[in-house]
């Protein structure tokens, strides 16, 4: 799976993909993440990528030409399944969307900045618009990193213990159960006895009950 991320601030994306699971996924050749500097596709002599909004008002608007040039170049090199625009007014990212995207081949992600991007980019090139929540950030880079992380960890072979993604919160209708590690007794605070019982069936049952209880109290909306 390949991601092409188009941004005016490529430096913002240096770190998120250079560690841990995302780094390993790239090293294993399971995913390729390529960051493109939108400024390299600026067409005018000032290399500008934004301009004043028609009709006035506050904030600069990102221009169509650099995005169009970059997207068209990428599309001339390979087929893309989706061109995603990170946007607070898009559909809110959830585990189901991450699952859908994890079986795709190539995805372009556009990061907005300032007041946003020229509506014609959205009308002409974008196939899907995704928000990471009901709040506004300064740019689409952190949202793009969130999306790529959520998707890549679902691709088979990325997590060392594949079943661990399946038992995560939101993968089914339940939140994840509590987890514990050593020591079994920390200053008198003990872990539940069942986890030391060695009884797989009992442990499984306990985890299910805990997950159910947690979901009832925290996210009753998930229980149909
Ligand atoms: N004027 C816009 C916000 C622009 S914020 C509005 O009110 O909808 C600048 C850019 O940051 C956006 O174009 C988008 O790419 C990104 N962004 C901000 N908040 C986001 C969110 N919650 N989810 C995804 N992208 C977001």
Automatic annotation (TrEMBL):
<comment type="similarity">
    <text>Belongs to the RNA methyltransferase TrmD family.</text>
</comment>
<dbReference type="GO" id="GO:0052906">
    <property type="term" value="F:tRNA (guanine(37)-N1)-methyltransferase activity"/>
</dbReference>
<comment type="subunit">
    <text>Homodimer.</text>
</comment>
<protein>
    <recommendedName>
        <fullName>tRNA (guanine-N(1)-)-methyltransferase</fullName>
        <ecNumber>2.1.1.228</ecNumber>
    </recommendedName>
</protein>
<dbReference type="InterPro" id="IPR029026">
    <property type="entry name" value="tRNA_m1G_MTases_N"/>
</dbReference>
<dbReference type="InterPro" id="IPR016009">
    <property type="entry name" value="tRNA_MeTrfase_TRMD/TRM10"/>
</dbReference>
<keyword id="KW-0819">tRNA processing</keyword>
<dbReference type="Pfam" id="PF01746">
    <property type="entry name" value="tRNA_m1G_MT"/>
</dbReference>
<dbReference type="InterPro" id="IPR023148">
    <property type="entry name" value="tRNA_m1G_MeTrfase_C_sf"/>
</dbReference>
<comment type="function">
    <text>Specifically methylates guanosine-37 in various tRNAs.</text>
</comment>
<keyword id="KW-0963">Cytoplasm</keyword>
<dbReference type="GO" id="GO:0005829">
    <property type="term" value="C:cytosol"/>
</dbReference>
<keyword id="KW-0949">S-adenosyl-L-methionine</keyword>
<feature type="binding site">
    <location>
        <begin position="132"/>
        <end position="137"/>
    </location>
    <ligand>
        <name>S-adenosyl-L-methionine</name>
    </ligand>
</feature>
<keyword id="KW-0808">Transferase</keyword>
<dbReference type="GO" id="GO:0002939">
    <property type="term" value="P:tRNA N1-guanine methylation"/>
</dbReference>
<dbReference type="InterPro" id="IPR002649">
    <property type="entry name" value="tRNA_m1G_MeTrfase_TrmD"/>
</dbReference>
<feature type="binding site">
    <location>
        <position position="112"/>
    </location>
    <ligand>
        <name>S-adenosyl-L-methionine</name>
    </ligand>
</feature>
<feature type="domain" description="tRNA methyltransferase TRMD/TRM10-type">
    <location>
        <begin position="1"/>
        <end position="224"/>
    </location>
</feature>
<keyword id="KW-0489">Methyltransferase</keyword>
<dbReference type="InterPro" id="IPR029028">
    <property type="entry name" value="Alpha/beta_knot_MTases"/>
</dbReference>
């Amino acid at each position: 799976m390949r991601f092409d991320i188009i941004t005016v601030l490529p430096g913002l994306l240096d770190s998120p993909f250079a560690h841990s699971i995302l780094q390993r996924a790239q090293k294993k050749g399971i995913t390729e993440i390529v960051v493109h500097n939108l400024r390299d596709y600026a067409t005018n002599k000032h290399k500008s990528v934004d301009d004043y909004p028609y009709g006035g008002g506050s904030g600069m608007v990102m221009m169509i030409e650099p995005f169009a040039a970059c997207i068209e170049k990428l599309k001339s090199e390979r087929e893309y399944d989706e061109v995603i625009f990170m946007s607070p007014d898009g559909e809110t990212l959830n585990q189901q969307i991450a699952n859908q995207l994890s079986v795709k081949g190539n995805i372009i992600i556009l990061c907005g900045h300032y007041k946003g991007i020229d509506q014609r980019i959205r009308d002409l090139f974008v196939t899907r618009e995704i928000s990471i929540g009901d709040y506004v950030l300064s740019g689409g880079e952190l949202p793009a990193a969130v999306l790529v992380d959520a998707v890549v960890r679902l691709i088979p072979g990325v997590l060392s213990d594949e079943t661990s993604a399946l038992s995560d919160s939101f993968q089914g209708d339940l939140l994840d159960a509590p987890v514990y590690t050593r020591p079994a007794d920390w200053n008198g605070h003990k872990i539940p006895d069942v986890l030391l019982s060695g009884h797989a069936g009992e442990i499984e049952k306990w985890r299910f009950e805990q997950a159910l209880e947690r979901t009832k109290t925290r996210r009753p909306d998930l229980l149909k």
